[in-house]
């Protein structure tokens, strides 16, 4: 497996030329007061799930964000994504709250769960 980060803070997990997952991070809010807080996203191919890809990607994101001086990392997760919820708890994120019916995808309303981790 090969993991790399490009200049846009996109982390890619690749194995034998096949992308199995990627992670990104960027500003949590676009105001100066939030300049030390980021929000991240992780996507793992369905056939690569439950194989440690997401945890490796998240580890790299946390290390990179910490090295770049960020204080806090935030995750917004669909409340039906139990694997992601468990991963974030395992990685030291704390549950902060749930926003009800704030997303709509695949012909259903989504609840957004927020998790947070202090990096420093």
TrEMBL record:
* GO terms assigned for molecular function: acyltransferase activity, transferring groups other than amino-acyl groups
Residues annotated as domain N-acetyltransferase: 1-120
Alphabetized PROSITE patterns for the sequence: GNAT
Pfam families on file: Acetyltransf_1
Q: Which UniProt keywords apply?
A: Acyltransferase, Transferase
Q: Which domain of life is it from?
A: Bacteria
- Which InterPro entries does the annotation name? Acyl_CoA_acyltransferase, GNAT_dom
| CDD domains the UniProt entry points to | NAT_SF
This chain belongs to the protein called N-acetyltransferase
Q: Which organism is it from?
A: Staphylococcus pseudintermedius
């Amino acid at each position: 497996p090969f993991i790399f980060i490009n200049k846009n803070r996109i982390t890619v997990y690749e194995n034998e030329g096949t992308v199995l997952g990627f992670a990104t991070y960027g500003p949590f809010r676009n105001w100066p007061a939030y300049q030390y807080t980021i929000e991240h996203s992780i996507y793992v191919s369905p056939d690569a799930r439950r194989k440690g890809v997401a945890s490796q990607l998240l580890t790299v994101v946390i290390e990179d964000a910490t090295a770049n001086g960020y204080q806090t990392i935030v995750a917004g997760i669909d409340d039906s994504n139990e694997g992601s919820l468990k991963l974030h708890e395992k990685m030291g994120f704390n549950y902060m709250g749930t926003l009800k019916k704030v997303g709509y995808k695949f012909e259903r309303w989504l609840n957004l769960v927020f998790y947070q981790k202090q990096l420093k």
